Each structure stands twice: as structure tokens, then as C-alpha cells.
Amino acid sequence: MMSNTKGKDAAEGSSSRSPLPAATAPVPQPLSRYESQKRRDWNTFGQYLRNQRPPVALPQCNGGHVLDFLRYLDQFGKTKVHMQGCVFFGQPEPPGPCSCPLRQAWGSLDALIGRLRAAYEENGGPPEANPFASGAIRVYLREVRDSQAKARGIPYTKKKKKRNPIINKPNHDHHDQHSSSFTMQ
Ligand SMILES: [Zn+2]
Predict the structure, then answer these.
(1) N or C: which end of the chain has fewer CB within 10 A?
(2) What band does 182 get if pLDDT is binned at 50, 70 and 90?
(3) C-alpha distances in angstroms, 142 versus 15, 16, 136, 146?
(4) Ligand 1 center to residue 101 CA distance, Å?
(5) The pTM is what?
């Protein structure tokens, strides 16, 4: 594979046709890091859809395509995720190499989905059909998070987020900062 994601912002958006005057307010500053990352992600996803056989048009894109895309990205991952049988399973910093696969880290996927979800609507996609907002993806991300937390021995709780894997409380943001600095495990 050739990933030329490095290199500075060589003007690669040469094919930019004038965007539809969507509801987004014009932002008078140069693209932030987030914005340019979002644009890159969006292009990558579009390319992925075009490379499907048969190609998938954006209006036909559903949560299943997005899930396939996330799995497809795993081959480019850099996060070692130990299998159940590995002696390093559950160790945050294993002392040696093993043959477990590299994956995309949950945090990367989570952030990616957030950017694509925004990009979809900014590019004219109807919010009610936003494939990145589908419940299947939420479920998938939760599974990835939990399994990686187990495999790597790293609880994903230090992220200031309310998500608490123990209970599934639907939307109850309060009462989370259990900053348990003393959990030794
Ligand atoms: Zn391993």
C-alpha cells in the first residue's frame, strides 16, 4: 500500500468544485489541524467507497460500509492488541515482542468517526441518514474499546469522558469523575 499521508499540505484538493452553500458559516481562518484532518479522512473514505466492487455511491452508503471501512483500516494500525492466548495479554507495556496483530487504536477510530460524521453532513448528507451515526457503529466502537482495554491492560477512563464501561447508563453525564488515581491493578 502506499500511504503518502505525510508531506505538508501539498495542494491536493485541486479538483475542488465549489462547495454547495451549505448551512455552515464561512470560517475566515486557514484550516485548522482538525479541519484538514477531517478533509483528509473524508477523501480517504470517498476513495474507499469508489474502490468497492461495485463502487458505492455516497447516498447508498450505510453503517455496514462504515464498519467495513473501520475493519479495513486495521491493517494500517500501529497498536498492538494482544490475543487472549498471548502471555502479554493485559499488560500495558509488554517486555518483549509477540505475534499479535496491530490494530487501529480505539481512540483513533472514535475520533475518526466523529470527523467523518461531521464531514458527511457538511458535504450535504442528510443528518437522518448519516451512516456514521448509526447505532451499529456505536456498538462496534464500544466493543473495540472494551476488548482493547482488556488486551492492553489500559482502562480507557482517563479521557475525561463520561463513558463508564461498567454500567450502561444511557445519558447521564454527571457523576463520573471518579478520578481513581489510586487503583492499582
Ligand atoms: Zn501479544
Answers:
(1) N
(2) very low
(3) 37, 35, 10, 6
(4) 8
(5) 0.68
Question: Rounded to the nearest whole angstrom, what is the distance from the C-alpha of residue 136 to the centroid of ligand 1?
Answer: 28
- With b for 16 or more beta-carbon neighbours within 10 A and e for fewer, the 92-108 pattern comes to eebeeeeebeebbbbee
Residue 42 is predicted with a pLDDT of 98
CA–centroid distance, 88 to ligand 1, in Å, is 5
Q: Does domain 33-152 have CATH number 1.10.3470?
A: no
Q: Is the pLDDT of residue 134 over 60?
A: yes
The residue extents of the domains of the chain are 33-152
Distance from Cα 149 to the centre of ligand 1, integer Å: 14
Q: How far does residue 82's CA lie from ligand 1's centre (Å)?
A: 4
